Amino acid sequence: MHNGLSYKTKQFFFVLIKLSIVVGAFYFIYNKLVNNNKLDFYEFATYLNSNNVLTAKNVILLMFLSFLNWYLEILKWQSLVSFIKKISFFEALKQSLGALTASLFTPNRIGEYGAKAIYFAKQYRKKILLLNLTGNTIQMVITVIFGGIGFYLFSLRYPIEIDSYRVLRFAILLLVIFSLSIFGLQQKKYKSNFFSISKLKHFFRKIPFRISVNTFLLSLFRYFVFSYQFYFLLSLFGVGLSYFEAMIIITSMYLLSSIIPSVFIFDVVIKGSVAVYLFSFAGIDEFTVLCAITLMWILNFVFPSIFGSYFVLNFNFNKQNKSA
Q1: Is the pLDDT assigned to residue 264 strictly greater than 50?
Q2: Confidence of residue 303 (pLDDT cuts 50, 70, 90)
Q3: Pairs from 30-38 (Cβ < 8 Å, separation ≥ 24)
Q4: Sign of the C-alpha dihedral, residues 56, 61, 65, 68?
Q5: How far is CA 191 from CA 78, 186, 196, 251, in A?
Q6: Could you tell me the CA-to-CA distances from 95 to 53, 235, 241, 287 in Å, in that order?
């Protein structure tokens, strides 16, 4: 009786946790859309309706780009996981969208790591964390490469004032933190089975070259997809920039917004502030930029997280660990 009650209690709390994740995600989405100090949701909806932005043709193309964006991300995750375990596309979809929902209100999507790991048996979880880190790192590298080029061209084209002294201080601070972190990890008393530098190097070297290249290419295509989607939204709002001119600002925006620590649900605010500042140099008004940012957020994060909530609610910890 005691064991049965204990099991039921655990099940009850597990269901409660799943409900809390979904309710919390929906609350943050609602709060960000309705109580947005920068963009009134009623004005936003009225503007879209009155300007015929969301015609059937435009909606189909925008939804296709969002679908393609997440299709590439799911393929990337399926490819990475194949290093330790073969999973179907549907399993990769469940894990990716479920993790998105669970990570909405965590700083810098940190919750995604634990959410994906919990889909696997205990012996796989450390490797899953590292594979997820690998995928995110490669995506970040692409953002930095194109963002660096874009920001360089942006600085040549527009009279932006950069405080070189502050940039240098920030770079030195990051270098010091990175150096101390590496030094700390190499000390015997801080070493652990998981954070051993030698074991981490060994793990990353064991990842097949084919998977690394595949991950890079999928991340690259995904970057092109969501960058083009943003440009397409700007064109729908009547922004007269050429593709090249717009991409200079878009790549710079993604670079700057990616290096600013934030709670992921407020990513729309971070990107909005950065985008408004950068596009102001091209004479684009704030309302137009915020509308594009908000639509990007709805299409690529709100809609997928709604589907992801289904997988969160139907997640069975015991069944998953037996089959994983």
Answers
A1: no
A2: very high
A3: 32/265, 32/266, 32/268, 32/269, 33/294, 33/298, 36/294, 38/269, 38/272, 38/273, 38/290
A4: positive
A5: 31, 7, 6, 38
A6: 33, 34, 38, 35
Mark out the alpha helices in the chain (DSSP H runs).
2-34, 41-50, 56-81, 89-103, 111-117, 125-157, 164-186, 197-206, 209-236, 243-258, 267-280, 286-297, 303-313, 317-323
293 Cβ contact list (under 8 Å, min separation 6): 268, 271, 272, 275
* Mean pLDDT value of segment 202-212: 90
pTM (predicted TM-score):
0.83
**Cα gap 305→289, rounded to integer Å:** 23
**What integer best gives the mean pLDDT of the chain?**
81
Phi, psi of 82 (to 5 degrees): -60, -15
Closest CA to 53 of 285, 277, 233: 233
Encode pLDDT of 168-205 as tens digits.
665 676 666 666 666 665 555 445 555 566 777 778 88
For residue 216, is pLDDT > 90?
yes
Please answer whether residues 43 and 288 qualify as being in contact, where contact means their C-beta atoms are separated by less than 8 angstroms. Answer: no
Residue 267 contacts residue 297 (beta carbons within 8 Å): yes
Distance (Å, whole) CA 247 – CA 150: 7
Could you tell me if 128 and 120 are in contact, meaning their C-beta atoms sit under 8 angstroms apart?
yes
- DSSP per position, 64-104: HHHHHHHHHHHHHHHHHHTTT----HHHHHHHHHHHHHHHT
Predicted confidence (pLDDT) per residue in 104-160, tens digit: 777 667 788 888 998 898 889 989 999 999 999 999 999 999 999 999 999 889 877
CA distance 102 to 49: 32
Residue type, 123: Q
